[in-house]
UniProtKB/TrEMBL annotation, chain A:
Subcellular locations according to the entry: Cell membrane
Record keyword Lyase present: no
Name of the protein in question: Autoinducer 2 import system permease protein LsrC
Described purpose of this protein according to its UniProt entry: Part of the ABC transporter complex LsrABCD involved in autoinducer 2 (AI-2) import. Probably responsible for the translocation of the substrate across the membrane.
Keyword match Secreted: no
Keywords: Cell inner membrane, Cell membrane, Membrane, Transmembrane, Transmembrane helix, Transport
Highest taxon, organism lineage: Bacteria
Membrane-spanning ranges: 36-56, 62-85, 97-117, 123-144, 151-170, 190-212, 239-258, 270-288, 295-315, 321-341
InterPro entries: ABC_transp_permease
Source organism (scientific name): Streptomyces beihaiensis
Membrane topology note: Multi-pass membrane protein
Coarse class of the protein's main subcellular location: membrane
Record's subunit section: The complex is composed of two ATP-binding proteins (LsrA), two transmembrane proteins (LsrC and LsrD) and a solute-binding protein (LsrB).
UniProtKB/TrEMBL annotation, chain B:
Protein name: Sugar ABC transporter ATP-binding protein
Keyword ATP-binding on entry: yes
PROSITE patterns tied to this protein: ABC_TRANSPORTER_1, ABC_TRANSPORTER_2
CDD domains in the cross-refs: ABC_Carb_Monos_I, ABC_Carb_Monos_II
Native species: Streptomyces beihaiensis
Length: 346, 521
């Protein structure tokens, strides 16, 4: 934790409490507005996008953007929670591939690729989520119970899980998925893809839980100063277990949505996502040193990234250059959020 | 969460009879024994604290003070002995809530969560809940405002706790303790990170609360503070209780003797100056200025001379000293160390010019806690450890052994991580490094902060000894004991050097000058 606590005795300590900067007669402290720091950037990108190509603001395109980002957004949601409690989970991207991969392996009929056809198709969703939970439990066991370094543990898990998926699939892609696995990625509710609804609903739930429940606030307490959280009577280990396991389950759900949308599970599903996830979380104001950031900010972070990518595509940037530009976008977005957020990112 | 809501309403006791020492003792601990493996941290220790008094607990590092605090706050169970709180036996360790209602400790290490607001810190894990079991932030804020104003703490409950000063954070922690219902508060070296004015405000607050019926146990290295604010004092030495006495009937020399186990002189003996006028000045500072910190600072430190740079925390003394050693750069003016002008703002250049320094905060700038004593002591003299950037392990250990001996650092060996040492010994490591390269100029910033009496004497003796070898010494401090041996003391006030006194000043003169008060007006 940043022990800025060892305060500089030379700092002028004499002034009374820090002055509150507030709007609307003090009802909204300015600190809260930091959550909205990315909103202007999003508006600017929307305007630029509209100028570049009038297609941008049409409903179809916006839905397309939201649907493409929905899986990544769930990973960002998961990673944001983990980062707030001052842990890290790199293995989310592999969980995203492995969880639906195992389900497909067990469900897809034998003869077609590497499927075993052991269980009926209806089991695929519970199976996927169970694999996610299991991965989370292993991570939590190693990190919390055995006190191993979370970064290295999940790095190891990232490689192991990816390897397992490659092993069971023989490096191939699972096709002919059961109907239940396709549902979340293909269904439309009220004319909008189900994955968008799920993504928005989960973010809304996360905003409420993290902002307005004791459990949610305990995440910030644990990440901000774990000893102080303990002293306040928070069961810190339990909070960490819940967060890590929930994160993995969310990753499994994201994998399910992606598999459904693509109607397949590739052995490389999710590969390389984690970098974008971290970038989106940090751009969205989640501190890598724990205890800071909001779910709304995280959502804005991932939204901003995907909008910029969409604008580039609409502008006709050659596909070969998209990779380089994506990296550049992340750096630029970080710089923008540093300027609008006004604080050094840790 | 409902029980948290009940506990939240502060109810200051009426002020009238609070100081009458009636009723059972707030705390009575007898025959406390606590062992950690082979070391005995407390050996039959005892303490009795009566309601409404401010009780000091003093002792050198390792006397068992911290262990006693953890026993009194329910963090550790004693191996033997009994603790009673307010006349009834202490709760079980598994019931932290019961402990919290009786006693609280404000540690040196803050238990405030910097990323949350003050209000949330106060009511963490016992938020107000409104409709649908969601937290009612309005309720939390209102309760925080009520709590802070009931104890007249002038802090905005919606400010992020990370923006608070050390002093304000202590007030928040005290208010939180009171909100649990505790009326007995332990302050563990509360003044270590505060400047003179903030200490004054803290003491005012303590006296206020004392009038409202709050009892304090005050742990400090500064005997001056004990005399200023405490009624009773208990001395621990080598894990045992040595004495308990009313402060106003206890001469200082006796208190120091009780702490150190020998009759120590309260005042340092006079030293004769070792200023060598023939040699070139160790430091000359000319017309140094930096926006918002100090301006027009000019002085010289001769070879073998000890010069004090006194002043309150925001006076600019620390900034000037840091500029001299290159931790910051001045906007105007120049710094000349032993006849050379190092590049401003460059520590390596200042070191190469012959400076050695002890930074103001050893935790922050002085030491790499997980590195060994040997590594820390030789961090700045890599060039003496080997050629071409490679470090010679043997040479390092030899050098470190030599330093450990010269500065009497109490460590089992040079390989020990420096974080395992006591505060006094850590500071000796920092000092050892400052002296490692036989500096022409030694700059010390608050050299004895958080250091026990004996180590303090030792460190200051070492400084004198160094000056005796022709090194110029600059001490930036507001600690009078640090300044006593100086040949001259320059006093800074609001960024300017306002006066200069030769040795033989009286405490009150210097303090008045540092506070910007003119005694003769």
């Amino acid at each position: 934790m940043p022990e800025t606590v060892l305060a500089d005795p030379a700092a002028p300590a004499a002034e009374p409490g820090p002055r509150r900067t507030a709007l609307l007669g003090g009802r909204i402290p300015l600190a809260r507005l930091r959550d909205l720091a990315l909103v202007p950037a999003i508006v600017v990108i929307a305007v630029v996008g509209q100028i570049v190509n009038p297609v941008f603001l049409q409903a179809d395109n916006l839905i397309n953007v939201l649907q493409t980002m929905s899986e990544m957004a769930l990973l960002v949601l998961a990673e944001a929670m983990v980062l707030i409690v001052k842990k890290m989970d790199l293995s989310l991207e592999s969980t995203m591939g492995l969880a639906p991969g195992i389900a497909a392996w067990l469900v897809v009929p034998a003869g077609a690729g590497h499927g075993l056809g052991l269980v009926p198709g209806g089991w695929s969703i519970p199976l996927t989520l169970a694999v996610g939970a299991l991965v989370g439990l292993v991570n939590a066991l190693l990190i919390i119970r055995f006190g191993l370094n979370g970064f290295i543990v999940t790095l190891g898990m990232l490689i192991v899980l990816r390897g397992i998926l490659t092993g069971i699939s023989g490096g191939q892609t699972f096709f002919r998925l059961p109907q239940s696995m396709l549902y979340l990625g293909t269904a439309e509710w009220f004319g909008v893809p189900a994955s968008i609804w799920i993504c928005l609903a989960l973010f809304a739930a996360a905003v409420v839980v993290l902002g307005w429940t004791s459990f949610g606030r305990s995440l910030y307490a644990v990440g901000g100063n774990v000893d102080a959280a303990k002293a306040a009577g928070i069961r810190t280990d339990r909070v960490l277990w819940i967060v890590i396991v929930t994160g993995s389950v969310l990753a499994a759900l994201a994998g399910l949505m992606l598999s459904g949308r693509l109607a397949s599970v590739a052995s490389a599903q999710g590969n390389g996502y984690i970098f974008t996830v971290f970038a989106a979380a940090v751009i969205g104001g989640i501190s890598l040193s724990g205890g800071k950031g909001t779910m709304f900010g995280a959502f804005c972070g991932v939204l901003l990234l995907f909008m910029i990518q969409n604008v580039l595509t609409l502008a006709g940037v050659p596909a070969q250059w998209i990779g380089a530009l994506n990296g550049l976008i992340i750096l630029i977005a970080l710089a923008i959020s540093r300027i609008t957020g006004g604080k050094v990112q840790e | 969460m409902s029980d948290g809501e009940r506990a939240g309403s502060p109810a200051p006791a009426p002020a009238d009879d609070a100081r009458s020492r009636t009723g059972p003792p707030v705390v009575e601990a007898t025959g406390i024994v606590k062992r950690f493996g082979p070391t005995v941290a407390l050996d039959g220790a005892r303490i009795t604290i009566m309601p409404g008094e401010t009780h000091a607990l003093v002792g050198r590092n390792g006397a068992g003070k911290s262990t006693l605090v953890s026993v009194l706050t329910g963090l550790q169970a004693p191996d033997a002995g009994t603790v009673t709180l307010g006349g009834s036996p202490a709760p079980r360790l598994t019931d932290p809530d019961a402990w919290r209602r009786r006693v609280a400790c404000v540690y040196q290490k803050s238990t405030i969560i910097p990323t949350l607001t003050v209000a949330e810190n106060l009511f963490l894990n016992r938020h107000d809940h409104g409709r649908g079991r969601l937290i009612s932030w309005q309720g939390v804020r209102r309760r925080a405002r009520d709590l802070l104003s009931a104890w007249s703490v002038d802090i905005d409950p919606q400010a992020p706790a990370g923006d608070l000063s050390v002093e304000q954070r202590q007030f928040v922690e005290i208010a939180r303790a009171l909100s649990f219902g505790a009326r007995f508060i332990i302050l563990d070296e509360p003044t270590a990170q505060l400047d003179g004015a903030a200490i004054g405000r803290l003491f005012d607050r303590v006296r206020d609360l004392q009038r409202q019926g709050v009892t304090f146990l005050f742990i400090s290295h500064h005997l001056q503070e004990v005399y200023e604010i405490c009624d009773m004092v208990t001395v621990f030495r080598d894990a045992r209780h040595v004495m308990t006495a009313p402060v106003d009937k206890l001469p200082r020399a006796e208190l120091v003797a009780a702490m150190t186990g020998e009759a120590a002189a309260d005042r340092r003996r006079e030293r004769s100056t070792t200023l060598d006028n023939a040699a070139a000045a160790a430091l000359s500072v000319r017309a140094l200025g930096s926006e918002g910190a100090y301006r027009d600072v000019t002085f010289q430190v001769g070879a073998g001379e000890i010069v004090g740079l006194a002043g309150a925390a925001s006076s600019g003394r620390t900034e000037v000293a840091e500029t001299v050693v290159g931790l910051r750069a001045a906007q105007v003016g120049e710094v000349e160390i032993a006849g050379r002008r190092p590049r401003p703002g460059s520590v390596p250049a200042a070191l190469a010019a012959g400076a050695g320094f002890v930074p103001q905060d050893r935790h922050h700038q002085g030491l790499v806690p997980q590195m060994s004593v040997a590594d820390n002591a030789t961090l700045s003299v890599a060039h003496r450890l080997g050629r071409n950037g490679f470090l010679g392990r043997d040479r390092r250990d030899r050098l470190a052994d030599d330093m450990i001996e010269r500065l009497a650092i109490k460590t089992p060996g040079p390989e020990l991580p420096v974080s395992a040492l006591s505060g006094g010994n850590q500071q000796k490591v920092v000092m050892a490094r400052a002296l490692a390269d036989d500096p022409r100029l030694l700059v010390l910033i608050n050299p004895t902060a958080g250091v026990d009496v004996r180590s303090k004497e030792f460190l200051l003796d070492k400084v004198e000894e160094t000056a005796g070898t022709g090194t110029g010494v600059l001490i930036a401090s507001d600690e009078l004991d640090d300044l006593r041996m100086c040949d001259r003391v320059l006093v800074m006030f609001q960024g300017r050097v306002t006066s200069e006194t030769a040795r033989g000043w009286h405490d009150h003169e210097l303090v008045a000058a540092m506070e910007g008060v003119d005694l003769h007006a």
